[in-house]
Design a protein that fits this description.
Length: 175
């Protein structure tokens, strides 16, 4: 039983790692990026597997891990899956809109290329290594920092290309 469960988890993780986690739909000059249709169901299935694993090991020597699994599983279903369903990035020749975060109160950035002097994809020191952000520098000098999570990170090349076509200086210091 434990071997089958471990194998199922490994297959799900392997499948997610090998295939693209997002879809790009082009409507004329507009590109819309969002997580692939299968990511939300896979997250829910992963949560069910995690809860089952937690239930099975809660009374073994791995009890703490089992309890953590039982706590994380509902959070995946209630918080992560709905957020992934509603996250999206829309890019056209004039601007980009990035919407992400907690589904009840998402963060939305609407950045017009004509308002920018430069846009930088930069590595920022974090507690564990580094994380990446888009630093959008307006013509007035103010900087808007947009975190590059999985979905936004996949759109960076197109954002920089479209901004560059509008005369915005672009810098890519990312991976």
């Amino acid at each position: 039983m434990k071997t089958r469960l471990r194998d199922a988890v490994a297959i799900v993780i392997f499948g997610m790692a090998l295939s693209g986690c997002y879809d790009r739909v082009v409507n004329g000059p507009e590109s819309v990026y969002q997580f692939a249709w299968w990511v939300v169901p896979a997250t829910i299935i992963g949560a069910v597997i995690l809860a089952t694993l937690g239930w099975l090991i809660r009374k073994t020597r791995f009890a703490r891990l089992g309890v953590r699994c039982l706590i994380v599983a509902p959070l995946l279903v209630a918080v992560v899956a709905p957020a992934m369903y509603s996250d999206r990035v829309v890019i056209d020749d004039e601007h980009f809109i990035a919407r992400f975060g907690f589904w009840i109160s998402p963060i939305t950035h609407d950045v017009r290329f004509d308002d920018l002097s430069e846009i930088r994809h930069v590595a920022v020191p974090a507690e564990r290594g580094k994380r990446y952000e888009l630093h959008c520098v307006s013509k007035t000098g103010s900087i808007t920092a947009i975190p590059c999570g999985l979905l936004v990170r996949s759109t960076v090349p197109e954002i920089l290309d479209r901004a560059g076509a509008k005369g915005v200086k672009t810098f890519d210091e990312g991976p």
